[in-house]
Amino acid sequence: MLVVIVVGISLIAIVSLLVRLHRLSKNIQMLEQQHTASQKKIDLITNYRRISKTAPWVWYVEQDKVEWSDEIFEMLGYEPGSFEIDREFYMSCVYPDDRPRVEKALAKILGRHSVSAMEHRIFTRKGETLWIEQRAEVFRDAAGKPEFVVGVCQEVTARKISELDFMEKKRTLRLILDNAPMGIWLQDRHGRLLFVNKAICDALGMPEEEFLSVDHYAEIYPGEESSVMGCLASDEAALGQEGAHHSYETLKFSDGRLHDLEIIKIRLINSEGIVSGLIGLSTDITQRKIAEENLKFLAHHDGLTGLYNRNYFVDQLRKAFALAQRQNNHGALLFFDCDHFKAINDSLGHQIGDEILKEMGARLSRNIRQEDEVARLGGDEFVVMAVNIGEDQRVAAERAQSFAEKLKDVLLEPYEVAGQLHHLTPSVGVSLFPQEEQTADDVLKHADTAMYRAKDAGRNTIRFFMPSMQQEVEQRLRTQTELRHAITHNELALHYQPQINATTGVTGVEALIRWNHPSRGMVFPGDFIEIAEESALIIPMGEWVLQHGLAQFKKWQAEGLVLGTMAINVSPKQFHQDSFVEYVKGLLNDMDMSGEVLELELTENILLDQTAETVSKIEALKEVGVLFSIDDFGTGYSSMAYLKKLPLDRLKIDKSFVSDITTNINDAHIVKTIIGMSHNLGLELIAEGVETKEEMEFLLENGCDDFQGYYFARPMPAKKIVEFCQAYRPVRAQV
Questions:
Q1: pLDDT per residue over 534-568, tens digit each?
Q2: Which DSSP letter does residue 129 get?
Q3: pLDDT digit string (tens) for 265-309?
Q4: What are phi and psi of 427, to 5 degrees?
Q5: Is 720 within the bounds of a domain?
Q6: For residue 273, what are the domain limits?
Q7: Measuring CA to CA, which residue among 463, 333, 320, 473 is closest to residue 395?
C-alpha cells in the first residue's frame, strides 16, 4: 500500500513536472518569439538610424557622462565601441567656429523645458566636414533638477549644402537685382507686391517693408490718379496676354522730378497652369527721351541760335507755298545777310561773332508774328517767312516791304557783346510767293538773288526779286509818306457832286476827296484811297472829310443854299473804330447841326461783317437823325437778310450796272430787280454813274427818280455848287 501511495505521489509529481516543463517550454517559445519581434524592431530602428543617418545619445548630467550610439562612432569614422568617447573628445571634433555655439546650446538646454535644436559642423577621422543637426530634450527628477539629456543627431550635409547653395544663389540673385539699372518687382494677380529691388526703393524713397506692407501697390503709387488708372489697366492687359506687355508711365521720383519710364510686365503661371501674378521691369528712359528730343531738335534747328535750320525751313516753305496757292493768298520770303560780317570774325574772333548771330536771331524771333517763321540758313544768313499778307499782289508787296523795313531797323540797333558796342547793317532780299511758273524752291533762290541785288545797290537796303515790283512798292511807300504829310499840311480838298431828283432838282451832294499834290497836281481817290486803307491813314483822312464836309454844308446853309443832305463815304476801318459813334455825335454837336443833313455811305462788306456791332452803331446814330445808305449796291454780297435786319434809308445802284443798261439785257434786268426790291422794302433809291440821257430815261421808266452822274454834273469845288444849284432846272420841268 505504501508502495502504491509512493508510486502515486511520484506519478503526480512527474505529471506536475511535465506540466510545468510544458508551460516553461511555451513561455520560452513565447519569449523567443518576443525576442525575435524585438530584434526585428531593433533591426528596423537600427536600419532607420542607418538610412536616416541619425545617432542617439544620452548625457547624464550629474556624472557629466555621455553614452554614444554606434552610429556616432560610424559618423565620426571610428569602429563602434573601440574607445570611450567623452564630451571633451566630441567637442574636439566640432568645427572650431561652431564650438562656442555648441557649448552655449548645451548650457541653454538645461534651462529649457522643450526640445532644442541646432546645426553645426564636425570633422571626421578622415578630415571630412559634415553638417549635423542636433535635437535634444532634458529630463528632470522629482525635484525638477536636470537628470539626463536625451538627444539625437542627424547628418544633414547634403541638405545643408543644398541650402547654402540656394542661399548663396539667392544672395547673388538679390545682389544682381539690387544692382540692376532698372526697377524690378514681383506682384501677385491682385496687385500685392511680393518683392521690390533696391532701384525702386531708392527711386521712390521708400523702404522695401513699406512696399510689401500694403494690400495693393496703388496705395503708395506716387503718380496722379490718371497714372494709377493707366497702371492698373496695364496690369489687366499683362495678366491677359502671353509674352511681354509694354507701357509707358511718368512718375515723380524722390528727387522731386518727373521721370519717364518704360514698363515691361510678364505674367507668371504656376505649376497648375494658373496665372499667379506679374513680374515687372521698369527702365528710366528720361535721359533717353531728352537725348531723342535733343536729336530731334538738332535735326530741325540750328545749334547756335536755336532757330529752324535750312532743311526744316525749306520743308515749311514748301508747305506754306502749297497753302498759299490753295487759298489764293500771298506770302513773302525775306532773306537777311549781315554786311561785312567776316571782318567781325577775323578781327574780334568767332566767339564775339557767335554772340552777335545769336542776338540777331533773337531779335528776328521777337519781332515776327506768331504765324511767321524765322530760320538761320548758315553763317550770317537768316530768312523770315511771312504768310497771309494779302490776296492782292500790290498790297502784299507793300506789306512785305514794311515788314522788311521794320526787321532791318531792328537789326540795325547796336549789339553789346563783352562790354563793347558793335554796329552792323543787313542787306535784305524779298521774294513774294506764289508767282506764275514759280516753285517753292524758286522762292528761296529768288530771295537770295534779291539779297545780292541789295548788296550791289550799296548794302543796308532792301530789294525785291522783280525790279518792277520793287519800283511799284517804292512808289506806294512814297505815296503813303506823302499822303501822311498831305493830311497835316492842307493838301487835301473836297469836291462835291450834286444828287438830282427828277421832280425837285438838286436834293443834296456827295463829298468826294481830292489831293492837291505839290508836284503831281490833282490826284484822284483811285490813286491813293487803297494805300490809305492799307496804312490806316484812312482814319484821320475820314475824320478830315467829315469835319470839312459838314463845315462846308453849314456855310452853305448860312449863305441861304437849301440842300437836303451831304453824303460822305465811310471806310470799314473808320466805321469799326470804337469811338466812331461818339466822334460823329460830337462833331454834329460842336457844329450845332442836325444829324438829318448827314448821310453816311457804307459798303456792303461793312454790313456783312460784325452784324451786331453794325446794327448797334447805325441805330445809335439814327437816334440823332443820321441817314445811312449802301454804296455801290449789287457789287458785293447783296443779301436780303441784312437789308431786312439793318435800319437803312437808301440804296445806291452801282455805275457798273447803270452804264450798260441800254445795251446789256442782264444789267437791265439787275437794275429793274434792284428798283423793285427797294420799293418793296420801303428804301429810297439813287442811281450813280448816269452819263447819258438814255440811261436816265430807262431809270425813270422803271421807277428810279434820283440820279448822280456826269450827265448832270461832274464833281466840283464848293464855290461852284451854289451857281449850279441856282441855275439847274429839274428834269420833269425841262419837258
A1: 778 999 999 999 999 999 999 999 999 989 999 99
A2: E
A3: 889 888 888 888 888 888 888 888 888 888 888 888 998 999 999
A4: -105, 135
A5: yes
A6: 180-290
A7: 473
